[in-house]
Amino acid sequence: MSFEGLLSREFLRVVEEAAIAAARTMGQGDRKLSDRVAVEAMRKCMDALPMRGTVVIGEGERDEAPMLYIGEAVGRQRDEDPEVDIAVDPLEGTNLCATGAPGAIAVLAAANKGGLLHAPDCYMEKIIVGPAARGAVHLDATVKDNLTAIAKRLDRAVKDLVVIVLDRPRHEKLIEDIRSAGARIRLISDGDLSAGISAAIRRTNVHAVMGIGGAPEGVLTAAALRCLNGGMEARLVPAKPGDEERRRFEERLRGMGISDPHRLYTERDLAPGPDILFAATGVTDGALLRGVRFFGHGARTYSVVMTLRERIIRFVDTVHLDGSPDAVVEF
Ligand code: VTB
Questions:
Q1: pLDDT digits (tens, 9 = 90+) for 225-250
Q2: Peptide bond preceding 169: is omega within 30 degrees of 0, i.e. cis?
Q3: How far is the CA of 196 from the centre of ligand 1 (A)?
Q4: What is the mean pLDDT of residues 200-216?
Q5: Phi/psi of residue 286, each to 5°?
Q6: Measured at the alpha carbon of residue 70, what is the angle toward residues 94 and 39, in degrees to the nearest 5?
Q7: Which atom number of ligand 1 is nearest to the Cα of residue 193?
Q8: Which fold has domain 123-270?
Q9: How far apart are CA 170 and CA 157, in angstroms?
Q10: What ranges in the chain are assigned the alpha helix state H?
Q11: For the chain, which has fewer Cβ within 10 Å, the N-terminal or C-terminal residue?
């Protein structure tokens, strides 16, 4: 049996717990605190799971992250347990949570060994679309050509498209190009991962995500896209311009076994699988998932859990009761 079926309920619990912990700190203005409680909750919840897990995308290198660092063994690690590679972003959008802004989520993806690219913590240039436009867009094509291709596949005009872009100075030219092509834009302060998932789900009113964001977020996005039949092209890029930065970046990639620093990746290269499980829970309200609600006797969470081999997408509404005999559940 694939680990997908075996562990999907458990992984749902892991992201729910991380989201609840982070949501308690919403609006405190302390992004580090929000992140830390999410990491701790996720780590604790993963310990008892029947798996031999290895973190391949996490909170950083071993010397810079106390928990969920790259290479850390998670799960109970018994011989009979399945081996899984795990990518986590316990709180995607730490600033969003710290300010109570929409779009923060707790995220995890798991795959069979080797099923997720071990991406370094650098940037990634990305173009992300839904199933209808998969294969029609190319990272090296012009913005106008890509938007025209997406519009055609979606049977509408370019002016009817909504493209999400991270609001950063590095995207000045991209934003200009999208504007002159005539599409609508939603600038976001953080959270290109949840934006990417939204692009692959109809009726979210998001048709594409373009620009440069985090590489770890890119691999997590690819894992979700595989399950949703979405499309993506991407390339690793250094964090800053300049030759010296480029040289260090390429050296780092070589150290991680990536010999071609200009390689173009599709969602399939970033998350080859064949077994993939993706789970996310809303922390603050977002386009796709509602945030955590607390009530007198517990909390309510909204999540999505997807599996590639099983081809199941679950939208899960969970009520977590605090154990009080008088707790009331509302419909
Ligand atoms: C994006 C965004 C993340 O990092 O990936 C971004 O989606 C990229 O880095 O929520 P910069 O902030 O340096 O542009 C986040 O903002 C945080 O991980």
A1: 999 999 999 999 998 888 999 999 99
A2: no
A3: 13
A4: 97
A5: -140, 180
A6: 35
A7: 7
A8: D-Maltodextrin-Binding Protein; domain 2 (3.40.190)
A9: 27
A10: 3-23, 31-47, 94-99, 143-153, 172-181, 192-199, 215-228, 243-255, 267-270
A11: C
Point out the ligand 1 atom lying closest to the alpha carbon of residue 195. Answer: 7
Question: Does the C-beta of 125 come closer than 6 Å to ligand 1?
Answer: no
| Domain edges within the chain | 3-116+274-321, 123-270
**Atom from ligand 1 closest to the CA of residue 214:** 5
Cβ–ligand 1 contact at 193 (below 6 Å) = yes
Question: Closest Cα to atom 11, ligand 1: which residue?
Answer: 213
Q: Is the dihedral of CA 258, 263, 264, 268 positive or negative?
A: negative
**Is there an atom of ligand 1 within 6 Å of 35 CB?**
no
pLDDT in tens, 8-43: 999 999 999 999 999 999 999 999 999 999 999 999
Distance 195 CA to ligand 1 centre (A): 12
* Distance (Å) from CA 270 to ligand 1 centroid: 18
Give the residue, out of 96, 165, 166, with the most ligand 1 atoms within 8 A of its beta carbon, to mutate for a pocket test: 166
216 C-beta closer than 6 A to ligand 1 = no
* Summary mean pLDDT of the chain: 96
Q: Alpha-carbon distance 163 to 166, whole Å?
A: 10
Which carries the bigger pLDDT value, residue 241 or residue 107?
107
Atom 16 in ligand 1: residue holding the nearest Cα? 190
Query: Nearest Cα to 93, choosing from 195, 165, 13?
Result: 195
123-150: pLDDT as tens digits: 999 999 999 999 999 999 999 999 999 9
Looking at the whole model, is its pTM more than 0.85? yes
Spell out the CATH class of 3-116+274-321. alpha beta
